[in-house]
């Protein structure tokens, strides 16, 4: 009987000692990143507009372009979906739609376009990272010609 009581007290002390530690541990929000790369897409030696939604940066003339879209969010929301999409009608290039089923979802989005310039040198244009609402219908990251 004495051994059982000691065992019960020991178990109770261990259990009580563990619970406060678990409750005192702060919750940490880890981030997760979804990435999609599209390209290379052959271009007729023309500049492209590298855009995240309506924020755009022009490139020098390129003979091809590859677009990389990265969306980073914490684990408390649904990870955004990245899908290949199209440049507007009559334009060439690469585009990605970043969206979430959570209408209030936000993500830190970075768009990187790389391509070979007409001078034979690799060119890079970066837009972001920028925090945007990715709830339906989402936002578009693109590297499209302006012709």
What report would you give on this structure?
The chain is α+β, with helices and mostly antiparallel strands. It has one helix and nine strands. It has one helix at 2-24, and strands at residues 31-46, 48-52, 55-58, 62-74, 81-85, 93-99, 106-116, 122-133, 139-145. It has a five-stranded antiparallel beta sheet with strand order 3-2-9-6-5, with no helix packed on it. A four-stranded antiparallel beta sheet has the order 1-4-7-8, with no helix packed on it. A hairpin with a 2-residue loop joins strand 2 and strand 3 (55-58). It is elongated and about 45 Å long. The chain starts with a helix and ends with a strand.
Could you say which structural class the secondary elements and strand pairing correspond to?
alpha+beta
H-E string: HEEEEEEEEE
Provide the β-strand percentage band: over 45%
Largest sheet: 5 strands, antiparallel
The first-to-last residue Cα distance is 89 Å
Helix content: 10-25%
Number of E-type strands: 9
CA-atom Rg in angstroms: 25 Å
Report the mean per-residue pLDDT as an integer: 83
Helical segment tally? 1
Shape, please?
elongated
Unreliable sequence segments: 1-28
Main-sheet strand order equals: 3-2-9-6-5
List the helices and strands and how they pair.
Elements: H1 2-24, E1 31-46, E2 48-52, E3 55-58, E4 62-74, E5 81-85, E6 93-99, E7 106-116, E8 122-133, E9 139-145
